[in-house]
Amino acid sequence: MYSSSSSGGYLDEAYFNNGPAAAGIPVLIDHSQAFIAPTPHIVVPVSGGGLPINLTSGAVVTEPRGIHIRNLPYDVTAEELRAHIRDAGTIVQCDVPQGSNRKGKGYATVLFKTQEEADRCLELFNASVLKGREIFMRRDKFATRKQSV
């Protein structure tokens, strides 16, 4: 299976029987170095959205009121977007990022007052047309908020 210049041992066999040697790959064992056990992995608790949770300060959870909108016209403003989706409910925050040329980047994030209003926005305005372009919406998976544990 494998060869070693020294006597080998239980750790060598246990490691290499489950490692590359088990796949038939020749392995050279260097016994001049001391064996250092691998550091166990630290498990970080995460929220449903895959974001880390700081349990001492509360959980970081995905904000269900946040909407991400893509395929926006580059010349659309936050006010025009607000006017377009106003019928869905109360908009708490509307961000349309701009590049260095002062034109939009083609996407936006919107935060509604309630989750129900965000749901209504998805139902009413996903695949709607704004300034000649079809816009698409989904939950904003990067919008987060703290929640006490």
Automatic annotation (TrEMBL):
The keyword Repeat applies. GO terms for molecular function: RNA binding. It holds the Pfam family RRM_1. Gene3D superfamilies: 3.30.70.330. Residues 65-142 form the RRM domain. Keywords: Repeat, RNA-binding. The keyword Transferase does not apply. InterPro entries: Nucleotide-bd_a/b_plait_sf, RBD_domain_sf, RRM_dom. Coiled coil: none annotated. Transmembrane segments: none annotated. PANTHER family: EUKARYOTIC TRANSLATION INITIATION FACTOR 4B/4H, NUCLEAR RNA-BINDING PROTEIN SART-3. This is RRM domain-containing protein.
